[in-house]
Write a structure and sequence with these properties.
The complex is a heterodimer of chains A (230) and B (379).
Chain A: E1 10-21, E2 24-36, E3 41-45, H1 52-59, E4 67-72, E5 75-76, H2 82-92, E6 93-96, H3 108-113, H4 123-136, H5 152-164, E7 170-174, H6 182-199, E8 202-207, H7 210-213, E9 218-223, E10 226-227
Parallel strand pairs in A: 3-8, 3-9, 6-7, 7-8
Antiparallel strand pairs in A: 1-2, 1-4, 4-5, 9-10
Helix pairs in contact in A: 4-5, 5-6
Chain B: H1 3-11, H2 15-43, E1 54-59, E2 67-68, H3 71-76, E3 81-89, E4 93-94, E5 102-106, H4 111-114, E6 119-120, H5 122-130, E7 134-138, H6 139-145, E8 152-156, E9 164-173, E10 180-184, H7 185-191, E11 197-198, E12 200-205, H8 211-221, E13 229-233, H9 234-243, H10 248-276, H11 279-287, H12 292-319, H13 326-329, H14 341-368, H15 371-376
Parallel strand pairs in B: 5-10, 7-9
Antiparallel strand pairs in B: 1-12, 1-13, 2-11, 3-5, 3-12, 4-8, 6-9, 7-10, 8-9
Helix pairs in contact in B: 1-12, 2-10, 2-12, 2-14, 10-14, 12-14
Classes of the chains: A alpha/beta (230), B alpha+beta (379).
Chain lengths: 230, 379
């Protein structure tokens, strides 16, 4: 696995992201330097507009930096083509979103299967992966349920299973508890911690919630596009 | 689950919209297939092999004008002419003007030798030649009006202001049209107090090679007379007759084009709306690793599926016209519904085109969108 030799799985140096709105330019990130190692559960905190989600998107290769370097799992993302980036995300990144973003016309099983449809796995192999992922999040009995038949917490757990199913090296969670009640949020955070501790997954979680940071091994704060010192 | 199944799920996500879109495409393609078939019928009238030996003589100035019946004898004397008959369009009606059909006055001696593809029994032909009021009807016309051999019927005049009684002595059958009605020219002539004029002659020429020579010879024979003629092949004559309908061809072609263009706009709009409603999902698919090409294929697949079902349904609707008596419904303007292979191909191509264009526009938009912007705009 990339980064298992002690080198950081994410190396960010002088990372910048500037958004242009007409003639106005807004710096979302300025000279970010950060290393994240294999097996860390990093919590990125900061007020709205601090640039934490932007940083997460750059790490996932969903957007291009304006300057600096962003090396993830040994790959310099800015050197990769759009097609290679897609394949790389499918193989190495698991994404969890604030509003779950499940596809309403697919069952829990089928939603979790979506990332696997791009792989060469057989139907039986896909089934084994899906049942294992849904088992980890405690939803083995909800395989045929549609998102509308699930609670918010259950939907987010299906989304976590979707992020896990391809056995990614890196799990990126953008405000995963933002739309959940306290009990469901705690369940989701417990699952994320289990993924980190029991399965060795490297997790980067963006959150506003100070309680959520208690589940992480490392917490970093951003403010006005800058990473605050530890 | 496969990506194809995912496409099907997306198609029927909004069942009402999917079904209405399919029906819209189906009706449009049905209309296109129907109009193209009518247009093709007008541009390429069906003629029998026997028609290759036939010429039609009419006045050079207008189809509505007459020439002397005596011209028939002069034409018959030309060396390469085998047979001649007067062929007068009578425009009689049965009972009322809604019952319109083709009826011609002709020479009973030679009519069915010249139109040899129209088969008549020897008994019927003998009676047609022997009885002045005898008439022979096409089989379809007999069936339509419930006529039987031996029936006496009265037809109402319009061009010729006389109502005439006929005895149906037999029916003719043919691989093509079976909707004409033949009466004797001498009976019409007498009823019109020695009209001694006719609108057309039909000629059977001795060989195909002689056809252009005979056409030229007939027109040369009457050149500089008060009744100059225009002699042409049967197909050219029918096309000339169709041209009297004015701009019907252009109108049909224009309607077909407008229908297709409108359908294209509706389909593009519908597919764009369907994709725009799901931009969040498209962004998520991209985020979890779906490349642009797969996203384009998924959206195109939806559009093709809808257009494909619409095309199949449209063609099935058009095929059902084979069981409709178009001749009766259209008062003789249309005969049987028989689209050509090229017309089917064009209809299918139109369906594929609708699928391609209606899917391509939103697919390219979805593929080009910025994933982060799409996710930000919705969260």
């Amino acid at each position: 696995m990339p980064g298992s030799d002690g080198k950081p799985v994410i190396e960010i140096r002088g990372l910048q992201k500037v958004f242009a709105h007409g003639d106005t330019e807004v710096a979302a990130l300025e000279n970010i330097d950060i290393d994240i190692h294999q097996g860390e559960f990093v919590c990125l905190m900061g007020p709205s507009g601090s640039g934490k989600s932007t940083l997460l998107h750059l790490i996932a290769g969903l957007d291009n930096p304006t300057g600096g370097q962003c090396r993830v799992l040994g790959q310099e993302l800015s050197d990769m083509s759009e097609r290679d980036l897609s394949r790389w995300r499918n193989e190495h990144i698991g994404f969890i979103f604030q509003s779950f973003n499940l596809i309403p016309v697919l069952t829990a099983y089928e939603n979790v299967e979506m990332p696997l449809l791009l792989t060469g796995l057989s139907r039986k192999e896909r089934g084994e992966h899906i049942e294992a992922a849904l088992g980890i999040v405690g939803l083995s009995d909800r395989l045929t349920h549609y998102p509308r038949q699930l609670s918010g917490g259950q939907e987010q757990r299906v989304a976590i299973a979707r992020a896990l199913v391809a056995d990614p090296d890196l799990v990126l969670a953008d405000e995963p508890t933002g739309d959940l009640d306290a009990k469901s949020a705690e369940e989701v955070l417990t699952i994320l911690r289990k993924l980190n501790q029991d399965y060795g997954k490297t997790i980067i979680m963006v959150t506003h919630d100070p309680k959520a940071s208690g589940y992480a091994t490392v917490t970093r704060h951003l403010d006005k596009g800058q990473m605050l010192p530890l | 689950m496969s990506l194809f199944r995912f496409i099907i799920r997306n198609v029927f996500r909004n069942k009402r919209r999917a079904i209405l879109t399919m029906l819209s495409i189906a009706f449009s393609l049905f209309l296109l297939l129907f109009l193209l078939t009518v247009l093709n019928g007008l541009l390429n009238p069906v003629t029998q092999d026997e028609a290759a030996l036939r010429l039609i003589v009419r006045r050079s100035t207008s189809l509505a004008e007459f020439m002397p019946i005596a011209y028939g004898d002069k034409i018959r004397e030309l060396p390469e002419v085998e047979l001649v008959t007067p062929l007068q369009w009578c425009n009689f009606f049965y009972r009322d003007t809604n019952n319109f059909f083709a009826n011609f006055a002709a020479d009973p001696e030679h009519l069915f030798e010249i139109y040899s593809e129209q088969k008549v029994s020897p008994e019927a032909l003998a009676r047609f030649k022997a009885e002045r009021t005898a008439a022979i009807s096409g089989k379809d016309l007999m069936d339509k009006f419930g006529w039987k051999v031996g029936d006496k019927i009265t037809l109402l005049g319009s061009i010729f202001p006389v109502d005439l009684e006929f005895t149906i002595v037999g029916e003719y059958t043919s691989a093509e049209f079976q909707n004409s009605f033949y009466l004797r020219y001498d009976y019409l002539n007498e009823a019109m107090n020695k009209l001694n004029q006719v609108g057309c002659f039909a000629i059977k020429v001795k060989s195909k090679e002689a056809v252009p020579r005979v056409a030229e010879a007939v027109d040369a024979l009457f050149r500089n007379s008060p009744y100059e003629t225009k002699t042409e092949t049967e197909k050219a004559f029918v096309l000339g007759f169709v041209s009297m309908l004015g701009n019907v061809k252009n109108i049909i072609a224009s309607v077909a084009l407008v229908v297709m263009f409108t359908m294209l706009l509706v389909s593009v709009s519908t597919m764009s709306m369907a994709v725009r409603e799901r931009l969040r999902e498209v962004a998520i698919l991209r985020a979890i690793g779906y490349p642009r090409g797969v996203v384009v294929r998924l959206i195109l697949g939806e559009a093709f599926f809808i257009a494909g079902l619409g095309t199949v349904l449209g063609i099935a609707m058009a095929e059902s016209l084979r069981f409709v008596d178009l001749n009766s419904v259209s008062n003789g303007f249309l005969d049987k519904f028989r689209p050509e292979v090229a017309t089917y191909a064009l209809t299918i191509a139109a369906g594929v085109g609708i699928g391609l264009i209606s899917g391509l526009v939103p697919a390219v938009q979805a593929a080009r969108m910025n994933i982060v912007s799409a996710m930000r705009s919705i969260e």
